[in-house]
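User: Need the bound-state model for coenzyme A:
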Amino acid sequence: MRDVAIIGVSQTKFGELWDVSFRDMITEAGLGAIEDAGVEGADLEAMYVGNMSAGLFIKQEHISSLIADHAGLTPIPSTRVEAACASGGLALRSGIMAVASGYHDIVISAGVEKMTDVVDPTPAIATASDQEWEAQQGVTFPSLYAMMARRHMYEYGTTREQLAMVSVINHENASNNPRAQFPMKVTVEQVINSTMVADPLRLLDCSPISDGAAAVILCPAEMAREYTDTPVYVKASAQASGTIALHDRRSITRIDATVNAARSAFKMADLTPGDIDLVEVHDCFSINGILAVEDLGFFEKGEGGRAFEEGMTRIDGEIPVNPSGGLKARGHPLGATGIAQAAEVVWQLRGEAGKRQVEGAEIGMTHNIGGTGGTAAVHIFSR
Ligand code: COA
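Assistant: Bound-state model below.
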């Protein structure tokens, strides 16, 4: 196995992008990463694209061919990777494995979703839950995460205000991210008084419906300095599966796939949570920010809410969480999220994150999950 480096990254602005088509969005992200890496399109040997559901959102399947064609990259192998909201994380992992194995040298891993073109995206997103046991009974993702939040409040005394702090900190960070969908700051009072979505989760506890794309260029670590003075190295790429439906779990206040992927990643990198300088977590709803910092090992189970409340997850805190603004405020175009998380960590490790820079960041982590935790991808990167 070869060591792998990231030599270029890019992310489009996330938001409701009426004037950009699906194919132009992913091409913009891809070209941005190619330019950032200083490679030529002709150098690319393979492409992996994370996408949850172009079929449901824009009625287009076979996007692997569509993108290679539109970007002028035929005949390189182009592969779509799908694992609901973890599609991007798995596209990244597929690219890493292709380079590590020696199959390819220069690879592009990207992610894209255009969600705002359908009138009601909620049933489309719900297809990532268990159809028979969840979606067909009327359950949606906000309601699944609401059940997890209620149970966490019951078991650990997590408060409504602590949940709100996850959003407050994310929006604070997003206010310094020009690519973020919702860069406005919000207060605890605004979160807990925003429109009810699924009790106890309100509008400002939820990640939005987003359009966007992101891309990274990978190559063998030994080649990286031919292209850049600031390569970022992949220290670990881990993936784990969990039950798709909540009722099959021994507990709904912990996501086993996160626990298992994190365990593998720390083992692979020979690191512990104390070594991580910043983490981009999958906070699709405020409760998942809390579950993530617990399940990744940064705080004891039940202590996540207090960690956000006491500011331990702020950019200057004990463990900076989501300097980008996270899914909540940067936005969550499902298939693009895992790649956008990696792009943010790369900018942070290169010292290029501007006002949201985590000072002296050397090691960063990403955490991307599908559904309520049926899939988890955890990556660790170093300068
Ligand atoms: N955070 C902050 N503001 C938001 C928002 C969010 N998540 N979602 C929408 N808004 C704002 C809009 O900009 C709009 O503001 P305006 O009136 O000033 O223009 C207003 O709230 C209403 O927007 P609208 O698009 O009508 O919202 P909605 O009620 O249709 O959708 C949610 C809101 C929370 C239901 C929707 O964003 C959602 O389903 N999120 C979860 C997505 C999801 O499940 N992802 C997968 C996770 S596993």
